[in-house]
Amino acid sequence: MASVKLTIEEQRMFDGEAGEAARESMEILVALGRIYGAQRMVPVTSVQVSGVSYKTIGEAGLGYLKGLAQKGAKARVPAFLNPAGMDIAQWKEMRVPEDFARKQIEVLDAYASMGISKTCTCAPYFIGIRPKRGEHIAWAESSAVAFANSVLGARTNREGGPSALAAAICGVTPYYGLHIEKNRVASLVVDVKCGLRTIADFGALGSLVGKLAKNRNPAFHGIKKAGEPGLKVLGASMAATGSVPVFFVEGITPEYAIADKPEIIAITDKDLEAERKAIDSGLKPSLVTIGCPHASLEEIKEVAGLVAKRKPTCEFWVCTSRKLKEDADRLGYSGAISAAGGRVVADTCMVVCPLEEMGYVVTGTNSGKAAAYLPNLCKQKVAFGDLEDILYR
Q1: pLDDT digits (tens, 9 = 90+) for 303-355
Q2: What are phi and psi of 199, to 5 degrees?
Q3: Which tens digit of pLDDT belongs to each residue from 65-80?
Q4: What is the DSSP pairing of strand 138-139 with strand 79-81?
Q5: Peptide bond into 245 cis (omega under 30)
Q6: Displacement of CA 27 from its chain's centroid (Å)
Q7: N or C: which terminal CB in the chain sees fewer CB atoms within 10 Å?
């Protein structure tokens, strides 16, 4: 294994001079650095911590967090949380089991005691947390990693929950992988010959390319126009089906680096339609969930305008951050959605919410990421499609 050279301050933490929590955390970072061949650490400007929903971390995870907090763990750099397993304010109305809610609050309190902000969003870039190009960060949620690397041009590996938390406590992360310029290249070029008209199209494209790319970095040629909501869903879907941490879109993303002799594939309208059909059960959903990753204010406005004209035929949630929900409340979007039988839901995401315990069986989505995760994580059958389809199926 490689030897990781530490600064004086990093060595102090490793030796336990900055407390037990910092020592344990630096041990985790050094071990990762050795595994991946890092020769040093790199300071980070922000950390996003996953492992927040009680559904995913369970009692063992909660015990670990409480233990760190009791040892005096404190974040050294700005750090914030991924979605929890419920809306902290609306969990009773959403029929979340009370025992689950109690444990979830304990998880959030443990993080808060360490100085980590309870943002509870997988799209921190929509609430003003936007690292600049070339900035080193340690983010953990797969879609946030893809967006930060690809759309913002920041530098982060796909951290695990414990390593991200360790980076928050120590303020550094091992210098390897996507922190290094030469590794930020695509070995797969996707020639996009299909139309991309809706968020579901971007989700289906990402779902398909993720399966083909697996752990390779893809670059896209032929995408004429893509806003941040579409790029968000594209990256999230590839991260879910193929562990893709960075992608490039010619003429749109800040980077576009291709390796020598890349594999080149073409995606046609026929390919895209086949993928859409493959991930859609064709069933009518009892719940439609929009916002995986979390919806932007622009997306919330779009849903509000759509359902104000015609009331959907099923229950539906629009998942977003607490900050954007408050903005949506103020602008009247939440009221329009509520009047149509829906709910703007903050703090959580459908894939880390205990849907199966809440009585849902078929969940609708326009997200390739949600379509990939809902069957296994929530035991749901998936109704995949454009908003007009899944809301009125």
Answers
A1: 999 999 999 999 999 999 999 999 999 999 999 999 999 999 999 999 999 99
A2: -60, -40
A3: 999 999 999 999 999 9
A4: unpaired
A5: no
A6: 26
A7: N
Residues 205-242: tens digit of each pLDDT: 999 999 999 889 999 999 999 999 999 999 999 999 99
Q: Are 291 and 219 in contact (CB under 8 A)?
A: no
Closest CA to 48 of 183, 139, 147, 111: 139
The string of DSSP codes covering 104-122 is: HHHHHHHHHHTT-B----S
Place of tokens 């991924």: 82
| C-alpha to C-alpha distance for 119 and 267, rounded to whole angstroms | 37
Return the axis-axis angle of helices 368-378 and 228-242, rounded to nearest 10°.
Answer: 40
CA atoms within 13 A on the CB side of 142: 18
For each of the domains in the chain, give its residue range(s) and CATH number, in order of start: 8-181 (3.30.499.10), 185-276 (no CATH), 280-392 (3.30.499.10)
| Degrees, nearest 5: CA angle 133-228-140 | 60
Angle between helices 54-70 and 161-170 (to 10 degrees): 30
